[in-house]
Structures are given as structure tokens and as C-alpha cells.
Amino acid sequence: MKTSKSRAAMLQRFFIPVVFFSLLFFACDTNNTAKPMPESIGNYVYAYTSGAISVADPVKVRFNGSMVGDDMIGKEEKRPILRFTPAMKGVYVWEDDKTLSFKADKLMKPGKQFKGSVNLEELFSNLKGGSSDFEFNFRTKEQFYNVLIDGFKSEEKGEAVARFVTGTVQFNDVVKEGSLNNFISARQRGNKLPISWSKTSAPGVYDFSVANVERNNAASAVELKWNGSSIGVKGK
């Protein structure tokens, strides 16, 4: 049987692998760093979310023993067992009798450190060794993107010819689809052109199409601009 010290070391390897570069970011958020974990926590907690996660991922804490009956599995937990800094609104659900899962109401902000605080007094009595609560850190992935321009495309529609500029954007993490409307803008001769988006089967990859492109004797460029602020990326 493993000691509490070795059990505490195991906690770091559950759910989300620790990404070492994320530790560099953790050091910057000194006001949001979890306090040291008592070794006795290993008596109560088996594992928890850590490292770098997607902005859409749930945050989980798995306890050593059964915490709820079968009637609570899949049900919302109302007790203040798990809380976050910065605060987030969402739903706490027992995934099974040992695992409490939190799902935020909306996507978390990218590239941000969070601190989870677990109130063990809500679940256990006669806690040992100052184990009334414990804190842990995790961080959401940094968002970045790559824009690929395919070029011009023509489609015959009766006697008319419709012309488009098509391309693909690859995102490092999940994006809110509504935010794509402000991500790319297209103009030709000063006129704004409509853009449509379609999600591909690959995670984080979207195709786009710029419509109403004109072609005549006078050369004119289609100007594309993208701005990452709509998806939480600083700069353009």
C-alpha cells in the first residue's frame, strides 16, 4: 500500500497530463497560486485536474472512496464543495460516486491560470493533519491560429458566375463559433464582402468563403484582415 506522500505525488498525473511549459506561466500569477498541499490530503483525494487544459474541458476532482449514493450519480451537487478563483459560473455534477465534475457555463478564458479550492469538511468528518481543504492550479491553453488562403474559386450559376476567395483557419483550441464573425474581414474596392464559415471534422479547424468577389478589366485586390481579439488573442 502506498504512503500518503506517494499518493500525493500520484495526484498530479490524473485527468490532464502536466504540461511543463505551463509552469512558467503559473509563476507569473503569484496571487492565484495554490498553497502547498498537506501530505494527509492523499487520504481523501485520489486525483484532480492539473496542467494545461482546453477552455471547454471540465474540471474534476476524484476522491478515494465513495462520496454519494447511486441516486446522485449524474445529478447536480449544490453543496459548496469546489470553488474557483477567478470565480466561474457553471454546474457541478457527480460523474460517478467518487468523481465530482465542474462544467463552466461558457468557455473559460484562454491562457489564464485558475485555482480550485476543495472544501473537504463538506464530505468528511474527523479530518486529519490540517486537511480541511486543499487547493490546486490548472491553466487554460494559450490560443493562437494559422490562416491559410486557398485562392479564388468560381462557380457557374445559370448564366452568372459566382466568385469566391476560400481559406482555412486552424485554431490551437476551441473557439466560440459566434466569435468568428469578427475574426476576418474582407473588402474589395472599399466594399465589405460577406464571409461564411463551416466547421470541419478536424478539431479547431474551420473553412471560410468570401463571396461576391468581382472580376473585370480593372484589376482590384481582395483585402483580407484578421483580428485575434475576438477569440481572446492579444494583437492581430
List keywords for this structure.
236 residues; mainly beta
Describe the structure.
The strands form four sheets. A four-stranded antiparallel β-sheet has the order 1-3-6-5. It has a four-stranded mixed β-sheet with strand order 2-8-7-4. It has a four-stranded antiparallel β-sheet with strand order 9-10-14-13, with no helix packed on it. It has helices spanning 4-11, 22-26, and strands spanning 45-48, 51-53, 59-63, 82-85, 90-94, 99-104, 113-119, 133-140, 145-157, 160-171, 184-188, 191-192, 195-199, 205-210, 222-226. The chain contains two helices and 15 strands.
Please provide a brief summary of the model:
This protein is about 5% helix and about 40% strand.
Main sheet characteristics: 4 strands, antiparallel
Structural class: mainly beta
Helical region count? 2
Beta-strand fraction estimate: 35-45%
How do the strands line up in the largest sheet? 1-3-6-5
Instruction: Average the pLDDT over all residues and give the rounded result.
Output: 84
> Which word captures the global form?
elongated
Along the chain, the helix and strand elements come as: HHEEEEEEEEEEEEEEE
What's the multimeric state?
A: single chain
**Between the first and last Cα atoms, what is the distance in angstroms?**
54 Å
Q: What is the number of strand segments?
A: 15
The level of helicity is under 10%
Q: Which helices and strands occur, and which strands form pairs?
A:
Elements: H1 4-11, H2 22-26, E1 45-48, E2 51-53, E3 59-63, E4 82-85, E5 90-94, E6 99-104, E7 113-119, E8 133-140, E9 145-157, E10 160-171, E11 184-188, E12 191-192, E13 195-199, E14 205-210, E15 222-226
Parallel strand pairs: 2-8
Antiparallel strand pairs: 1-3, 3-6, 4-7, 5-6, 7-8, 9-10, 10-14, 11-12, 11-15, 13-14
